[in-house]
Amino acid sequence: MISSDLVLFTLMVVVSVNLARALTALRSLLYIMREAHPLLYQQVDGRDFFTTHGNVVKQFRLYHYIRSREYMHHHDPLFIKKCDKVRGLFILFMNLLGVTLLAAILI
Protein backbone atom coordinates (compact mmCIF):
# COMPACT_ATOMS: atom_id res chain seq x y z
CA MET A 1 0.00 0.00 0.00
CA ILE A 2 1.22 3.49 -0.83
CA SER A 3 2.05 5.71 2.11
CA SER A 4 0.26 9.05 2.40
CA ASP A 5 3.61 10.69 3.11
CA LEU A 6 4.93 9.40 -0.20
CA VAL A 7 1.90 10.80 -2.04
CA LEU A 8 2.34 14.24 -0.44
CA PHE A 9 6.08 14.23 -1.08
CA THR A 10 5.52 13.33 -4.73
CA LEU A 11 2.92 16.07 -5.14
CA MET A 12 5.28 18.60 -3.55
CA VAL A 13 8.08 17.59 -5.92
CA VAL A 14 5.76 17.98 -8.92
CA VAL A 15 4.61 21.40 -7.68
CA SER A 16 8.23 22.49 -7.13
CA VAL A 17 9.29 21.40 -10.62
CA ASN A 18 6.36 23.24 -12.19
CA LEU A 19 7.13 26.38 -10.18
CA ALA A 20 10.71 26.25 -11.43
CA ARG A 21 9.43 25.88 -15.01
CA ALA A 22 7.09 28.85 -14.58
CA LEU A 23 9.83 31.08 -13.14
CA THR A 24 12.23 30.11 -15.91
CA ALA A 25 9.58 30.92 -18.52
CA LEU A 26 8.95 34.25 -16.78
CA ARG A 27 12.66 35.05 -16.87
CA SER A 28 12.81 34.31 -20.60
CA LEU A 29 9.66 36.40 -21.13
CA LEU A 30 11.34 39.36 -19.45
CA TYR A 31 14.37 38.89 -21.68
CA ILE A 32 12.19 38.93 -24.81
CA MET A 33 10.09 41.78 -23.43
CA ARG A 34 13.17 44.01 -23.27
CA GLU A 35 13.28 44.09 -27.09
CA ALA A 36 9.64 43.45 -28.01
CA HIS A 37 7.90 45.76 -25.55
CA PRO A 38 10.39 48.15 -23.88
CA LEU A 39 7.72 50.35 -22.31
CA LEU A 40 6.12 47.42 -20.49
CA TYR A 41 9.58 46.21 -19.50
CA GLN A 42 10.16 49.53 -17.73
CA GLN A 43 6.66 49.54 -16.22
CA VAL A 44 7.14 46.10 -14.63
CA ASP A 45 10.65 46.97 -13.42
CA GLY A 46 12.13 44.24 -15.62
CA ARG A 47 15.75 44.79 -14.64
CA ASP A 48 15.02 44.41 -10.92
CA PHE A 49 12.16 41.91 -11.25
CA PHE A 50 13.91 38.99 -9.50
CA THR A 51 15.85 41.04 -6.96
CA THR A 52 14.96 41.63 -3.32
CA HIS A 53 14.51 45.35 -3.89
CA GLY A 54 12.14 44.88 -6.81
CA ASN A 55 8.91 46.88 -6.69
CA VAL A 56 6.01 44.50 -6.02
CA VAL A 57 3.40 46.96 -7.28
CA LYS A 58 5.17 47.09 -10.63
CA GLN A 59 5.39 43.29 -10.72
CA PHE A 60 1.63 43.04 -10.29
CA ARG A 61 1.33 45.11 -13.48
CA LEU A 62 2.80 42.15 -15.39
CA TYR A 63 0.43 39.78 -13.59
CA HIS A 64 -2.60 41.81 -14.69
CA TYR A 65 -1.19 42.20 -18.20
CA ILE A 66 -0.88 38.43 -18.60
CA ARG A 67 -4.09 37.57 -16.74
CA SER A 68 -6.22 39.88 -18.88
CA ARG A 69 -4.45 38.66 -22.05
CA GLU A 70 -3.58 42.18 -23.23
CA TYR A 71 -0.62 40.68 -25.10
CA MET A 72 -2.92 39.20 -27.78
CA HIS A 73 -2.78 42.50 -29.71
CA HIS A 74 1.02 42.62 -29.80
CA HIS A 75 2.85 42.48 -33.13
CA ASP A 76 5.56 39.97 -32.13
CA PRO A 77 4.40 36.32 -32.32
CA LEU A 78 7.30 35.12 -30.12
CA PHE A 79 6.23 37.52 -27.37
CA ILE A 80 2.64 36.29 -27.60
CA LYS A 81 3.81 32.67 -27.45
CA LYS A 82 5.95 33.30 -24.36
CA CYS A 83 3.11 35.14 -22.61
CA ASP A 84 0.78 32.22 -23.33
CA LYS A 85 3.35 29.78 -21.98
CA VAL A 86 3.85 31.77 -18.78
CA ARG A 87 0.11 32.07 -18.30
CA GLY A 88 -0.43 28.35 -18.85
CA LEU A 89 2.39 27.35 -16.50
CA PHE A 90 1.13 29.56 -13.69
CA ILE A 91 -2.41 28.23 -14.10
CA LEU A 92 -1.00 24.70 -13.95
CA PHE A 93 1.06 25.60 -10.88
CA MET A 94 -1.93 27.05 -9.03
CA ASN A 95 -4.08 24.01 -9.83
CA LEU A 96 -1.36 21.61 -8.69
CA LEU A 97 -0.88 23.63 -5.52
CA GLY A 98 -4.62 23.42 -4.84
CA VAL A 99 -4.61 19.64 -5.37
CA THR A 100 -1.61 19.28 -3.05
CA LEU A 101 -3.26 21.34 -0.32
CA LEU A 102 -6.49 19.40 -0.69
CA ALA A 103 -4.59 16.12 -0.48
CA ALA A 104 -2.74 17.34 2.61
CA ILE A 105 -6.05 18.15 4.30
CA LEU A 106 -7.75 14.91 3.31
CA ILE A 107 -4.87 12.55 4.03
UniProtKB/TrEMBL annotation:
<dbReference type="InterPro" id="IPR019598">
    <property type="entry name" value="Universal_stress_protein_B"/>
</dbReference>
<comment type="similarity">
    <text>Belongs to the universal stress protein B family.</text>
</comment>
<keyword id="KW-0472">Membrane</keyword>
<keyword id="KW-1133">Transmembrane helix</keyword>
<keyword id="KW-1003">Cell membrane</keyword>
<keyword id="KW-0997">Cell inner membrane</keyword>
<feature type="transmembrane region" description="Helical">
    <location>
        <begin position="86"/>
        <end position="106"/>
    </location>
</feature>
<keyword id="KW-0812">Transmembrane</keyword>
<dbReference type="Pfam" id="PF10625">
    <property type="entry name" value="UspB"/>
</dbReference>
<protein>
    <recommendedName>
        <fullName>Universal stress protein B</fullName>
    </recommendedName>
</protein>
<dbReference type="GO" id="GO:0005886">
    <property type="term" value="C:plasma membrane"/>
</dbReference>
